[in-house]
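$ fold --in a.seq
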Amino acid sequence: MKMHIKEFAELTGVSVRTLHYYDEIELLNPSFVDEQNGYRFYDEHSLERMQEILFYRELDFSLKDIHAILSSHNYDKQKALKEQKHLLTLKKERLERLIMALDSAMKGEDFTMNVFDNSEFETQRDSYAKEAREKWGNTAAYNEYSAKAYSTEKQSELNDGMNDLIAEFAGCIADGNTPESKEAQALVMKWQTYITENYYTCTKEILAGLGTMYTADERFKANIDRYGKGTAEFMCAAIQEYCR
């Protein structure tokens, strides 16, 4: 399944402008970008990612929290779905209480003011967000990243820089190099330096986790492999060799 950005926007109910923004902040990248005309395309992995984003948005999570949760290599989708269902159930129960209160008001009957209380939902949501952030977000790396307030233009520039580096990894493969080669290892060092200089201090421990995520998460794998099939696996292997 491959959809043009306009088709994907219509299917998901999200504007094209929002999809462009999600791409800029690395929340949802297209599965493929035509280098000749710049057209963005999305696939089933993109749709799955968008579904997860929309569930979190429905629950009033910030984009920063959603990014931290979905980007964590410890992300457990099934656990996340259960947590989301629990929160949506709390939201549904509150709406049902409000509807009953409206019925009472229409009949001229009294109702208790605690029907407006949303503290249980907010407490549960904030607790879940905190727990999720702590798996990756409540670290020096995330705090360092959060402290950087880049403009949209600057963020787009940084994303282009990362894409250029991924293209270099693809080129490294095309030149017949192995993940253990000095060329590949030099690229890993360059990748680590780029992350450190522009986002957060990328230690070897963090770098190793990122490398694993590039192949374990199909969405990251698909995004990286648009520069050449096998690029994600190559990056992962090169990173693991570098971090030994």
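$ fold --in b.seq
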Amino acid sequence: MRENDLLRLPLLGDNPLDPPAEWEQLRGRCPMSTVELPSGDKATYLTRYDHVKALLSDPRFVRPTAEDVGAARIAPEGAGGPAADGSSTLTLPDRGEPHLKWRRQVGKYFTARRMTALRPGMVRTAEDLVDEMVRGGQPADLKAGLGFPLPVYVICDILGVPAADRDRFSHWSDAFLNVSRYSGDQTRAAYDEFAEYMGAHIAATRAEPGGDLIGMVIRESKEEGQGLTDDELLGTAMGLLVAGHETTANMIGKMVAMLLADRTRWERLLAAPTLVRTAVDEALRFDANLGFGLRRYLTEEVEIDGEVLPSGTTVVCSMPSANRDESVFTDADDMVLSRSPNPHLTFGVGPHSCLGQSLARTELQVTLDVLLRKLPSLQLAVPADELKRVEGLLVGGLRTVPVRW
């Protein structure tokens, strides 16, 4: 890479499990560089841990919206959808006290106690899915057999919607998160269908609140005399369903692929299953296939390491590059299953960190526990360098994860 080269995102490694060589070069020589997005727009790209953490921790800056005129778009004109181009019509407060209030209300559901209560049901579901995958014969696609359906069942239960509609949820999520597969018209149509579906669910839940997250928020709103508006409830339900299954479904496949690509990792877990918790966080840190990174729009001038970024700049924070920063992580390019502490930035940090990270960790731990116990001889059915990434997906992912046992 020459110093004056203009890089185009996303940066890709030689295979979907490897980091691109440019990350190390950028962290060392040009940690704040100008890059081109698929839209053709330019953005500032942050690759060092301290820079990424500082910007993500700053409550002043959030993802750009349609109101942020001049913000860099990810998707080309006419492609992608609300999540891709920053013009999301999901009505969620994302700045200041309204955002903190929303997080407090919705965050009450994602407690450690509730995750512990959900865990036995997750285990039963994962076991049933593995049994069904085994009955189907080998080789099998672990992503289709376990990675996708498990998070769908879990998030549907949390939101009180039927898992039988999972194929529709998958289509709607993909339309929101893929910047190359759909046209703008197709994404808007998917949004309208999704909003109509969730609007009907919210109306039914208002009439008879249940024990799901939406019912909990509605009941507490009545008791306290204030709460989320219908639009905010709609944005919450839609956002959680997309984020609550698409990212985890892809991470399950990537985690298992990383552990099986070097089978000594899998064998170490078989010998020491107590490492599952730290191994999950290490997989989250080690994942090089995290898509585009998080965008932030600067509404005022910011100085980072002596360099001034003017107001109106769009910044892309590369969490996977930051997670390989040797100044923070010893042996950063090795997958150290016992790594602790592990302050990776995969879930973000600060006031906009991932609200459902405890749920995601629980699902990943359950997946690994069940697979180690039920399929100890699990292995990839193809060489790791033959795995294919999902093109254009904002959160990164593998098309399939072929396995045998």
